[in-house]
Amino acid sequence: MTAHPSQETGQPGAAKVVNLALQGGGAHGAFTWGVIDRLLEDGRITVEALVGTSAGAMNAAITAHGLVVGGRDGARAALERFWRAVSEAALFSPVTPSPLDRWMSVGNLDYSPTFQWFDALTRVASPYQLNPANFNPLRDILHDQIDFRRIRTNDQIRLFTCATNVNTGRIKVFRTHEMTAERVLASACLPFLYQAVEIEGEHFWDGGYMGNPPLYPLFYESTSQDILLVMINPIRMAEVPRTATGIFDRINEISFNSNLMREMRAIQFVGDLVDKGFTDGGRLRKMRIHTVDAEDQMRRLSTSSKLNAEWSFLCWLRDLGRARGQAFLDEHYDRIGVESSTDIRERFL
Predict the structure, then answer these.
(1) Terminus-to-terminus CA distance in the chain, angstroms?
(2) What is the per-residue pLDDT across 118-128, written as a single tens digit (0 to 9) for each?
(3) Which of 20, 63, 6 is nearest to 227 (CA)?
């Protein structure tokens, strides 16, 4: 792998090199699109590696493709093409916001009769019954928009996605040299929507159950010590949920954040050892953690909104991501390469 190449033809290399870690969250992944779009537009950051889960895996793969074939501008254009295609595919979905949903929130589907019907149906019938042909519109989008051969053979960007092995319950991390559309789809395979993705005789579900996203590939297979985590799932809640929907939503958030919080605990532990002078012969590195999120806004969105791919909602999320990306650059850019801008103990422990 070459040493931190510029991602813009004809321009010098960026001053700050980071790894991007991208959470999953269905349509909420459009927030991550906005964050990445603003970081690339700014031009002062070079991405060495990306790791993503579910929608984060989609964003990571699209970004890697765009950077390889067209630099920063190519990645920004690729991300917009992808999310437009997702929205266009959703035009054929019966699950849409009701007038009451549109009045009550920016993207929730809680009062949509079709969502309620669909949600109830998926609790009593599996995708093997409801979708025997295993139709997944994302499969065609990925095949059409990503040159996986270029990703596998490139020497600029490292890409990692993860999935959950259905039979063993273990995490599976797919690496750059083996990346395919099916491996990205495996990372986003919600078991109540799609049949398990089979890869080399093994079956996989959404990677969020075991890592959202996993950070350890970045410890061992990249040179940058800066990880910028784009968070979608809120960690803290202001109030205890009291409705059935609210309780289900919070259980989902806690489940998908649990492995990330354990990894953060390990990062803090290793960082403390390094601060005390113990590096295990140079094998231990202190990672610098940075985060971009919109917990104040994401708390207002229910799990139902993760299935809302209306273009207006995706654009709202994108613009929110761009604003939070700009805030990160304004407040913390100078700390990249120097120190963590996120207090792990206060945020995750």
Answers:
(1) 35
(2) 999 998 999 99
(3) 20
